[in-house]
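Exercise 7 asks you to align residues with tokens for two separate proteins.
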Amino acid sequence: MGETRKHEKYEALIAMCRALAPVRTAVVHPCDQSTLQATIEAAQIKIIRPILVGPTAKIRAAAASAGLDVGAFPLIDTPHSHAAAAKAVELVRTGEADMLMKGSLHTDELMTEVVRTDTGIRTERRISHIFIMDVPTYPKPLFITDAAVNILPNLEEKADIARNAIDLCHAFGIVQPKVAILSAVETISSKIPSTLEAAALCKMAERDQIAGAILDGPLAFDNAISRDAAAIKHIASAVAGDADVLLVPDLEAGNMLVKALSFLADADAAGIVLGARVPIILTSRADSLRTRVASCAVAALYAHAKRVAIGSVGKPE
């Protein structure tokens, strides 16, 4: 399989951004080569309009050591990473930025500022993380949630996790995404609580408590992504074998699933956080440049989709 085909889903979503205005993005503590490279590339292809927030001397030193030029970007000086996170969140609150992008600071540092009750940018929606997987053996992008933020979500939290994923699918132009609620089995059993929650989520969808998608579960992983496996189990479902979204039972299961696909199936995993006022680009130190740029593109598509309903974002220069 060629490199081009491996990245074809990511290339398609990056191409979707070409017709859109770049989105104002506060890049938090970008004091490492990987973050700066991704920022520059995403800016060059007009996905984002970066605002670099962090210690000016460190940012410029990191850029110089990597042979990168950040002179064209606004730079807001802060003494350290904690202050950078607080300032970036403030830029969102004051309407000066429409996305956040994590740099070389701990995720907890950034998210602590995001969720503060007095100065944060929370909404009534539960915050959750979504991986957008480019799996070479699957015919379309695969959304997996939540494998990074919510450790052991309850029923109500899973409902919000599903709503966040559905909103993101809509931003991709998937009008009626198919959400597979995963468990170890496809039958409901009181011995496996995740099967009961899956059944409840499906009933919530029937009653329009979760709207805009087709939900089914519990489904085992094979039934969710393989029509043959679903047929063998005699599962009649619009979701089985054709899922857009995999809603995992807990963080451990989701994290293992994403890493298994990444390291055994040669998949790429772009990731963002939703549920706050703006999308948050969370990248890993192990992410490739293409994956980092794809994460920017995913967040930008979502930010533009939100603009349709609530106002202006990423206006052309």
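Second protein for Exercise 7:
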Amino acid sequence: MIPFELVEPRTLREAVALLDTGEPMVRPIAGGTAVMLMMKMGVFQPSRLVSLRAIEKRYSEIAIGTDGELRIGAVATLSALERSPLIKRHAPVVAQALRTLSNVRVRNVATIGGHLAHADPHMDLPPVLIALGARVSAMSPNGVRTFPLEALYAGYLETTLARGELIAEVTIPRQNSTRAVYLKCTARSADDWPALGVAAALHADRDVVRSARLVIGAATDTPARLTAAENALRNARVDDAVLRLAADAAASEAKVVSDQHGSAAYKKDLIRVYVARAVRAACQLRDS
């Protein structure tokens, strides 16, 4: 391994300043699950790593804001989210999705900010959080900007974060009566990378859908909203015909890519099956 500098700032603002060098081989490291793997494989050789382990404690906390929003610090670990009573109460679908996200050793060190910023389309949480309407706050030398999570992704392993900009916090709006589920299809074990992940968040009166947010991951280069399928469900009574209509719309609009987890044609079929399953499962939930 080529030698590199490791620095450990005490504040997030200091970390941003250390990253704002214009040098492409200067990167942040939090849990390190992705960065260390890339270094071991020889695809990334940093000149400097800026550790986020010692920054302010508030960036590892999970709390409820005065408006009922869930506020999650960017260096909160995935295990902390999985165990958090606040997550289980206000966004239970997040805790449920985490049970089969990689393994407990990874979840114990991986952070929510790193998980989102890595931008691997096979990640489980981006579709879930986008379906819940999550927002991201990112800090740069110019200050803090907040934007919808779905605007974070620009392509495969590519985000809209500027160089030197770091995710500071993730905010999940108050969900009220949202019924949300996440289903995924894996070729091997349940905690394997998915061939497809589908998140559905519905507002429904019994079996009539008033509004829906459907998001897929793994089958596309970035997490993708299925707006045509959402429109097919709006104000519709969920039955087999409506589910087929929504599933076909989802498969038609998704820009599916082939990879080692399956061909594009195979994933199109998965979308038809799993969108229908996710909507039906969400409708069967009691209001939260």
